[in-house]
Amino acid sequence: FSLDPWVLRLVPLAFLCAETVIMMLAASRDGGNLASALAGTWFVCEVRRRHGLYDLSDWDIAGTFLMALLLMLQRRDTLAWRDALVLSTLMACAVMSSWLMIVVAGVLVGCLGIEALRGRIKAAPTAAVGVAFALLAALALSVFAVGSQQPLSVAVDELWGQMYAETPLGRSLMMALPVALGIVWLAKSCGRLGPRFAALSLIAVPAAIYVAQQRSHVNGGYYIGLVPPMLLYAASVATAQVIEALADRAAQVGVSRAVPYVAAAIRGALALAVAVVTVRSLGTGEMGVGAEQLTILAHDMRADRLPIFTNSRDLVPLLAFERARAGE
């Protein structure tokens, strides 16, 4: 066993890698290889702002199970008992990681219920998933009840500001167009189970955070860090489809024999341009709520000669780096 920071971060790093791979696979299923590449690139840009690594929180653990649920629902035209068992297990693991996942689990059960009422999937396995959800919901409500006894810690305007900062738009306003395209794509694709689950989750999670903060006081706006992977999945699929359409249309202007090559070149150029614009200025900007603690330590320790006991060999260069950033 070890308390070295790099050792403590191995587990959340493993879940972060798994979450990235699952998200890329989900994007590939709906938007092809280009969507997969965009999703992976954009999510890697978010890593330095994720609480899972610098704060050892549970977002990427719960997020891994969230994306696995989405992957299970994609191209789902039936629901066997084995599928119900897998979905129930993923729900349980997700809720054990973060109480907020009970909201997503509720969306999942609702989506499955709609499919069962339409006769597209079997009712008995769907009911079994509903029973598993009910048991998990009872556990989550006990957490909610405890939080209601706590004082209000975050004002409403601050809450929405925290949520905005955790989205891809909080990293770069250049993500506004891909995110908008993703929302439009989700709205148009709600006839399918996977996109419907993603769209309703993206609505339900912010609403649940607001309600929980008003009634239970157990969270802050940073809880929305659970769903950016799903938002990036939709944004990457929609952006890839737009790039494909523009490339194919532009290629039609050229000679017919060269259309495939021209389309491929245009597709590559557009994808590269989107990547450069949306990833630009990645090395600057805010680190995320909570990451400023090291900066405070680097500043305050200059005013005294108190000893610092640590098992981190990286503390000295990190403090020097923070002082350099602050110009001290």
Q: Any overview of this molecule?
A:
By secondary structure, the protein is an all-alpha fold. Helices cover 72% and strands 0% of the residues. The chain is built from 15 helices and no strands. The longest helix has 37 residues, at 10-46. The protein is globular and about 70 Å long. Mean pLDDT is 82; it is low at 283-290.
Q: Decide which structural class fits the backbone.
A: mainly alpha
Q: What composes the largest sheet?
A: none
Uncertain runs? 283-290
Tell me the Rg in angstroms.
Answer: 22 Å
Shape: globular
Beta-strand content estimate: under 5%
Number of helices: 15
Report, as a whole number of angstroms, the end-to-end distance.
Answer: 37 Å
Succession of helices and strands: HHHHHHHHHHHHHHH
Fraction in helix:
over 70%
- Secondary structure: number of strands: 0
Mean pLDDT: 82
